[in-house]
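Quick question about two entries, pasted in order.
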Amino acid sequence: MSALLKDRVWIMLSEIAKRGVYPLHASRLGVFRMPVDLTDWSDISSISNDLKSSGFKMDAYADRIYATYKWTEKGLDPLTGETLSADLNVTVEAVTGEVVDLIYQIKPLEFFGDCYWVRNYRQKADQNAKMVIDTIIRNTKIGDKLVAHYQKAEKLSLERAIKRLEELTPLAQNPKVRSAAAIPPAAGPASSPKLVQPTIAVAPKAPAAAAGADTISLSGTGTNYSKAEGPIDPEFKSKRQVVGSFQGIKVWGPVDPPGQLGIWGTQVTVDFDICIADGACIEACPVNVYEWLDTPGHPGSEKKTFMAREKDCIFCMACENVCPPQCVKIFQKGT
């Protein structure tokens, strides 16, 4: 598969995905979520223009773009020795918005007729679909936005962000060449580590300071709790009070550890008393907002999904949509 997307795969055993009904109907869909915003119409329409030389058949409908790759298989009939050919194809759909979903479906071989003689069809279709995905990302505005995302979220230089994009889209056809800003003279690189080093030295101290400021403990002797059921109360902010914080994250009471932990977060909020630690939100989040936090003694689960990087949330709603007990609520900034 595309190296870029190897950790972002969901196989949905349904024709309905969380962001709506996808037109590529099949029992199995490969869905890849990209942490980039593509809402401006000029950016969306540029995708088809950027792929004109790719050889794909391009279609668009509203906020969705379709790229179809066609190829011909040739072979011999094993019984008659007759030369046969079959025209096959695979389509990738790009659903634009605050995040970009790239979806592909491998149709059954029977869809194209009596092609029983074709060998390794699924592997070829899978490889071609991933080639289309890599080409879309590498050669369009999506790639530009992904480079910007790497710079902001992972603190990479422009040159390194471009290099990473190139490394992670190895199947792209006629790949677009992006140029980084001019590299400083020899003295520049030598001085760069000196500028970065103080940041590295200070970084380990930050968690210690935050930990010292924590006003919420995960341990205690409280027994005032019972099993909680979802969904999270969407109006909890008007009904509860902030009773403390943990590593800079607000905690809304009541809290009586270890069995009653309240609701955590401001924009990315999780009711810890409902959370069952299934991990769906961690897997779904495209920008790695969550990490595990041990909560020994809690009746719901002894670990919770902690919004350690709440400020990185892109409000795609993926975590809220996939949570089985419905313990997650995402609030847009300012709400």
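Here is the second entry:
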Amino acid sequence: MNQTLKQNKEKHDRYIVLTVLTIIIGIMLIAGYETSLGRCIKKEDTNSQSETLTTKAEENLMPAELNLTSTQNCREIKLTKFMATKKNFIFEYQFKLDDERLKELLTKQLAAGSNYQNIHFSLFADNDMSYDLVGGGISSSTFQIEGDIFYGKVNFTYDSKKLPDDTDLMLQISQLSWEDRDERRTAEAETNLSETGSSFTVPTALQYDGEWRFDITY
């Protein structure tokens, strides 16, 4: 009888020990899982924040509103906006519309339903004028008139290359030109009557040349 009780007690003690060990191991596994999960969540959160910051940085690398002026050949041009991402930049400029010949040309152009503006411009990094950042992309240029102010806007998108990071830029406008819509209509009519081909050229009616430069600080 005593032998049986002793065996039962030993079994009971072993059961208690195994139960305690099982509980301890379970607690350790749960704690380890929570720690690992916390690290993963923290890492994912850090990566998410990093991606968000990178996206924001690429969405708007440069200041938007500007008030920079440059004068060439008695013509002052003001750069009012420059925005850029890695693959694209947009700038807006304006000048006083005090040229009667230009007013006439623009009136004809708008009446014909066109607001296209012919402009030659360059973009340089860190005042290194040996390498023009403009190239290998698509450009659109438009204008509008409000009162006696000419407003121009240019949008340039790169095919592959990107704008450099953390660098000052210099925008240079070197030419603005316009054609006479009456001369264009005449050239188009003559081409339609001709049997030699469909191409035609329209002479430049008015042209502003200079080196209007604007330093854009990153």
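Reply: The chain has three helices and eight strands. The first helix runs from residue 2 to 59. Hope that helps.
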